[in-house]
Amino acid sequence: MMRVKLLLSVLILFALSTEIYAQRRSVKNEDAEETYKSFTSVGITTNTNSGILGGAVFRQSSALGSKMFGKNAYRYLALELVNVKHPKELSTQDFVTGARLVYGKQNYLFVLRPEYGREIALFSRQDDEGISISGIVAAGPSLGFEKPYMVQYQGSDGRVTTEPFDPNKAGDIIGAGSFFQGFGKSKVVPGLHVKTAMSFELSAFRDNVTGVEIGFIAEAFSRKITIMADAQNKAFFTSGYLTLYFGSKKR
């Protein structure tokens, strides 16, 4: 379902941007195109490997002294923190206790992604009107944090303990532990990632920008990440993503 939503978003934005650009070409002069020194923004993101809220992003673009392919070019820096889920994850609720549980989940996977790359202004906003469209290519390290999924076990004596999920442990699981438990037992798994994206900038005021970044990420870790105990886990991930961001420009 998420993949369908992302695809529809791409198609709609592409159709809008193509029409606007066609109108501009006949009436605007290239000298009137918008230029800026830097653009700083924050945003929230969703992707095909997450839930509705996938994580948060900080991004900054700074103007370079030269052009690329005849277009204004910018140094692109970003920092993302996202949650990666396994497609086999299914949350259930106990009808007696009301407790929720993702049975078989062994670890959370949170990924911190510093990124460096280039952003090229394909079509620039002119005279405070329309949509600015840019292409982005970036790459960087990936720091995967494999945090244990904590569950509540009830022993034969009735005692309840909260421990990391263990598929080989005997006992009744009666619910999930607190999300904030288990961070001290997290393991760091290094990796690398690369992404390509299109950014669509809208603005109600010239220096305050609201926009959408839509793209694709490929990511590889140094070993397989165990998210689900009884499912196929992997070291290489791909995902489509959509980021809604808000920021301001300096001229």
Write the layout of secondary structure elements.
Blueprint: H1 2-27, E1 38-47, E2 55-68, E3 71-84, E4 91-93, E5 100-102, E6 107-123, E7 132-148, E8 150-154, E9 160-164, E10 172-176, E11 187-205, E12 208-225, E13 234-250
Antiparallel strand pairs: 1-2, 1-13, 2-3, 3-6, 4-5, 6-7, 7-11, 8-9, 8-10, 11-12, 12-13
Helical content band: 10-25%
Model regions low in confidence, pLDDT < 50 over at least 5 residues = 18-31
N-to-C order of helices and strands: HEEEEEEEEEEEEE
Number of helices: 1
Mean of residue pLDDT values: 84
The percent range for strand residues is over 45%
- Principal-axes geometry comes out as elongated
The structural class is mainly beta
Largest sheet: 8 strands, antiparallel, barrel
Distance between the termini: 40 Å
| Gyration radius over CA | 22 Å
Number of strands: 13
Strand order of the largest sheet: 1-2-3-6-7-11-12-13
List keywords for this structure.
251 residues; mainly beta; 8-stranded antiparallel barrel; 3-stranded antiparallel beta sheet; 10% helix; elongated
Protein described:
- The chain is mainly beta and 251 residues long.
- The chain contains 1 helix and 13 strands.
- The chain has an 8-stranded antiparallel barrel. Strands 9-8-10 form a 3-stranded antiparallel beta sheet, with no helix packed on it.
